[in-house]
Amino acid sequence: MEGMPLSMGSLRTLPWYVAGSQVLGVACVVITGVWMGHYRGGYAWDGSAQFNNHPLCMVLGLVFLYGDAVLVYRVFRNETKRSVKILHALLHMMALVISIVGLVAVFDFHSSAKISHMYSLHSWCGMLTFVLFVLQWLLGLGFFLFPWASAQLRSWYLPLHVFFGLLLLAMSVGSCLLGITEKLLFSIMESYIMFTGEGVLANTLGLLLVCFGVVVGYVVTREDFRRPPNPEEEALSVHFKTLSEGEIPSSP
Amino acid sequence: MEGMPLSMGSLRTLPWYVAGSQVLGVACVVITGVWMGHYRGGYAWDGSAQFNNHPLCMVLGLVFLYGDAVLVYRVFRNETKRSVKILHALLHMMALVISIVGLVAVFDFHSSAKISHMYSLHSWCGMLTFVLFVLQWLLGLGFFLFPWASAQLRSWYLPLHVFFGLLLLAMSVGSCLLGITEKLLFSIMESYIMFTGEGVLANTLGLLLVCFGVVVGYVVTREDFRRPPNPEEEALSVHFKTLSEGEIPSSP
User: Fold this and answer.
1) Which residue range(s) make up the domain with A71?
2) Residue A157, CA distances (Å) to A59, A70, A149, A244 in order
3) Given a cut of 50, is residue B194 above it in pLDDT?
4) Does residue B16 form part of some domain?
5) Contact list, A116 vs chain B (CB under 8 Å)
6) CA closest to A4 among chain B residues
7) Cα–Cα nearest to B234, from B216, B220, B215, B249
8) Is residue B3 part of a domain?
9) Do B115 and A177 touch (CB under 8 A)?
10) Within 13 A of B99's CA, how many CA atoms are on the CB side?
């Protein structure tokens, strides 16, 4: 590496990427809200409108809040690692609670309408994503937030936690896109082909979800956006040079 | 890092991951072939069977061959970088040609059947993936295979090439899953909900495609699976520590 001047220069672009991710994330939540609210009959906790809570909760929880939980290690560069870890866990907890509400909404709706559960590729991928997310969250708590795991175990698990973290973001976005396609074909199969407003809006939502995932993934994996080394992390020997929650090792 | 003993030990697992990826990749191609061949009326270059070439070509080209092109840097660890680059470019060229056949098949089928082009989220995501793939392939040729680009330009572009390479694998898999969902809802919407053989087979194909992408992504991003440094690369100053085509820098 040519060293600090390049890193310092490129760090100036970080806020722009973060701001871009937030604009994209908010746009996704708003468009989902408008789609379900304006085109699909609004929100309720019974009848066919109960379903409409599902897309909104999943986009808000498992995409937007999940993505922001991943970003905190790049945004709060100079806070203590412990504070950032707690924020990371809290945002993931909010994502978990909101996505549980979203899942209850769709299972309740299916039961009331006598529709089978879990028959579609969207449901298989979405449920796999949710189960892995819960597992990842519990393992993250156990390994990194509470003092149960040894430093060696932590350093073994960290690259896996980071890999699965980004994988789950991709799977969340992918599951949303499958859900969008399903919903459009169930609701407007005849008019979808004619580039109607609802179809174009939902397709645009799909592309914006991909863009959100791409920007978050880019910020998290870009080498010169990493957090500077800190003594707490050094002491824990949680060193790795690959896709990383945090630090560049100060020594090999 | 604790150093060589750990790396040497973990390298023994690399062939298992690579073998696993090949089993998954072949299974995806075979299941797609069986789905279209057995359940959807087989293959032809006219009539409704012309469509059936599309899924087979896209899974074979933009997923299986694309994934294998990404893997060559881990599989051929001790060949010269130049040979591996040529193999990487050739596999991508095969992926490109086969995916063009797949695209011609679906556009031709749509034209014959008087169906609009490019109205669905699957088509938007799939076309975006294909266009970015062509761009990435051309830039890869220009920057890395021919001697036009300076070492500085190459080292600037390499992390982007690697990031977009993995992103495109994820987008290819995601586009296939959207296509599976579309095809099932167009063909068997009534019976899909009853867990019929075709629906379960196609859902299983979707999960296997995700697994293929995950294993390839894991092998390529795992730190101790990287290629050992080599003098050609050193001379080009193509050094980087992030998600990487190749080397760990021998000096910071």
Assistant:
1) 26-236
2) 28, 16, 10, 12
3) yes
4) no
5) 193-195
6) B252
7) B249
8) no
9) no
10) 24
Q: Is residue A96 part of a domain?
A: yes
Collect all residues with Cβ–Cβ distance below 8 Å to A74 and sequence separation of at least 6. A14, A18, A219, A220, A225, A226, A227
Task: Give chain B positions within 8 Å (CB) of A179.
Answer: none
CA distance B10 to chain A (A): 12
Triad A208, A213, A215: Cα angle to 5°:
90
- Residues facing residue A227 across a β-bridge: A247
**What is the full DSSP assignment across B98-167?**
HHHHHHHHHHHHHHHTTPPSS-SHHHHHHHHHHHHHHHHHHHHIIIIISTTS-HHHHHHHHHHHHHHHHH
- According to DSSP, residue A36 is labeled I
How far off is chain B from A58, nearest CA to CA, in Å?
Answer: 18
Q: Which of residues 170-199 of A touch B (CB under 8 A)?
A: 170-171, 173-174, 177-178, 180-182, 184-186, 189, 192-195, 199
Helix (H) or strand (E) holding B172: helix B151-192
pLDDT digits (tens, 9 = 90+) for A16-60: 999 999 999 999 999 999 999 999 999 999 999 999 999 999 999
Of residues A243 and B61, more confidently modeled: B61
State yes or no: pLDDT of B23 exceeds 70.
Answer: yes
Q: At what angle do helices A14-34 and A197-221 cross, to 10 degrees?
A: 150
B7 interface with A at CB cutoff 8 Å = no
The CA distance from A22 to the nearest CA of chain B, in Å, is 20
Contacts A118 to B, Cβ<8 Å: none
How far is it, in rounded angstroms, from Cα A150 to Cα A5? 37
Interchain contact, B121 vs A184, CB within 8 Å: yes
Task: Count up the domains in chain B and report the number.
Answer: 1
Which residues of chain B lie closer than 8 angstroms to A182, CB-CB? 181, 185
CATH of the domain at B60: 1.20.120.1770
Distance from CA of B4 to the nearest CA of A (A): 12
pLDDT digits (tens, 9 = 90+) for A158-187: 999 999 999 999 999 999 999 999 999 999
Residue A181 with chain B: CB contacts under 8 Å: 120-122, 178, 181-182, 185
Task: Indicate whether A19 belongs to any domain.
Answer: no
